Amino acid sequence: MKLNDIRDNGGATHYRKRRGRGIGSGLGKTGGRGHKGQNSRSGVAVANFEGGQMPIYRRLPMRGFKNPNRRDYIGVNIDRVQLAIDEGKLDAKAPIDAVALKAAGVIKRVRDGVRLLGRGELKAKINITVAGATKTAVAAVEGAGGSITMTDAKPAAEEAASDKAE
Questions:
Q1: Which of 127, 138, 133 is nearest to 152 (CA)?
Q2: Are 97 and 81 in contact (CB under 8 A)?
Q3: Which of 3, 28, 84, 100 could bridge to 23 as Cys pair (CB 3.0-4.6 Å)?
Q4: What is the mean pLDDT of residues 109-115?
Q5: Strand order of the sheet with strand 132-133?
Q6: How far is CA 76 from CA 35, 42, 65, 120, 127, in A?
Q7: Across residues 111-122, what is the average pLDDT?
Q8: pLDDT tens-digit profile of 51-101?
């Protein structure tokens, strides 16, 4: 093998097509675009245009609903709170609220409030104030001898109606 014998494998290189450079190139005159019409012109390809028929986004029905007033709670599990207490970032004797959880690095932002979730085990006796909590979380906090205060608690009648609907 000699240096002047080295070549790429067949098909390894791809040369760009030089359109409109004479009939000898095979892409002269119309440049591979056919004759006349919108697609033979430059700069007129309209996105999502279906030639005048009813577009797909209008043929399909609208679905769903996005509630603009929906509250965005941050979920915090009990095991995450216990870990922060074990690491000394949270004081179990002091009242715990969203501001304390943020200062301890348990949550990044408060948004519309904190919702306490029931995963994990709580060993410390805490007094916590949150926007909402699951039944398992309430049972875990009260089981450890602590107390839980919910700021966004639903009225009893409304809660019974939502439980009945489920």
A1: 133
A2: no
A3: 28
A4: 92
A5: 74-77, 114-117, 132-133
A6: 65, 56, 27, 11, 15
A7: 93
A8: 889 999 999 999 999 999 999 999 999 999 999 999 999 999 999 999 999
Q: What is the mean pLDDT of residues 44-53?
A: 84
Fold of 74-165: Ribosomal Protein L15; Chain: K; domain 2 (3.100.10)
Q: Cα(127)–Cα(135) distance, rounded to whole angstroms?
A: 16
Average pLDDT, rounded, for the chain: 89
In one letter, which amino acid is 82? Q
The pLDDT tens digits for 9-20 are 998 998 888 988
Please provide the DSSP assignment of 90-111 as one string. S-SSS-B-HHHHHHTTS-S--T
The domain locations on the chain are 15-64, 74-165
Length of the chain: 166
- What residues form DSSP beta bridges with 133? 116
